[in-house]
Amino acid sequence: MNLRDLKYILAVAETRHFGRAAERCFVSQPTLSGQIKKLEDELDVVIFERTNRSVEITPVGEAILGHARLALEQAQAIEQVARAHQDPLAGPLRIGAIPTLSPYLIPQILVPLKRTYPNLKLILSEEITDLLLGRLVHHEIDAALLATPVDDTDLDSMPLFDEPFWLAHPRNDPLYEKDEITAKDLEEVDLLLLADGHCLTHQVMEVCRLAERPTKGEMADLRAASLETLLQLVGAGFGCTLVPALAIRGAWMTDSGIIARPLGNLPDAFRRISLVYRRSFPRRAALQAFADVIRQNLPNTVRRLG
Asked: By three-state DSSP, how is residue 146 classified?
């Protein structure tokens, strides 16, 4: 057994296909298949059940794959420890971020991160919360910027900041005449929401005290895939929505037909952004450095933590 064999079985597990796994590992399919068969013979177990149509992981294979991921991560850590002898914050750092945060936060931190830690290579991916948690558990990313609490004993988090929600409404909306937005106002607006799967949808519903999505009226069938699309709908006069504070700095604020209003009298109208990571991740110093850069480069529309 060697690290190469562990990389082979992980590639098959992730692609569920021997041919695609071989391409990922830059070897021929017979070579990859032969090495995996040798490993199975050595361990006297079957890791994959193979048919002409599918590749399935056996129960013992699932257990082996869990250890294989840890072994490869620790092998990478050994390499990183060696590099850290000269630079403790060198090498790649794979960060995931939710799409309602990434476009507004990441551009603000890239330059100061590069300036402060020139040898730290940020590798960014953008997906919804459930997909990021899956990638985190499977060691495909090192940490994730999330806006929801995580209940998993294998994961830990660094709270970074609290991000208030602002109300975005069309210029010709009756709310324009109100000096202050109240909770009752939010209960009565035509609320636009992102498609299911975005954590922002549930957070907005909680602030507006909605037990479920609207099922009647013009807004019921609208399911925007991105915050930008949602704001274009607001600007076109289709309704209102709640926007995270960092997003109010976006280009949509210019000649968009949208008015953004703070919700200062609603103390619970915010979301908490945290950096979530595996407890077993060995490069805690790199995560702390990344978190510190974020905290140091936040605008005054959010509240820093830590």
From this structure: strand
**Span 261-281, mean pLDDT?**
89
d(CA 7, CA 69): 9
For the range 169-177, what are the long-range contacts, defined as Cβ-Cβ under 8 Å and sequence gap of 24 or more? 169/234, 169/240, 169/258, 169/259, 169/261, 170/234, 170/235, 170/236, 170/237, 170/240, 170/257, 170/258, 170/259, 171/257, 171/258, 171/259, 172/237, 173/240, 173/259, 175/240, 175/259, 175/261, 176/259
What is the chain's mean pLDDT, rounded? 87
Distance CA 117, CA 34 (A): 43
Beta carbons of 11 and 24 less than 8 angstroms apart: yes
Give residue 207's pLDDT band: very low, low, confident or very high (50, 70, 90): confident
Residues belonging to the chain: 306
Whose tokens are 């296909």? That residue is: 17
The pLDDT score that the predictor gives to residue 97 is: 97
CA distance 132 to 141: 8
| pLDDT exceeds 90 at position 157 | yes
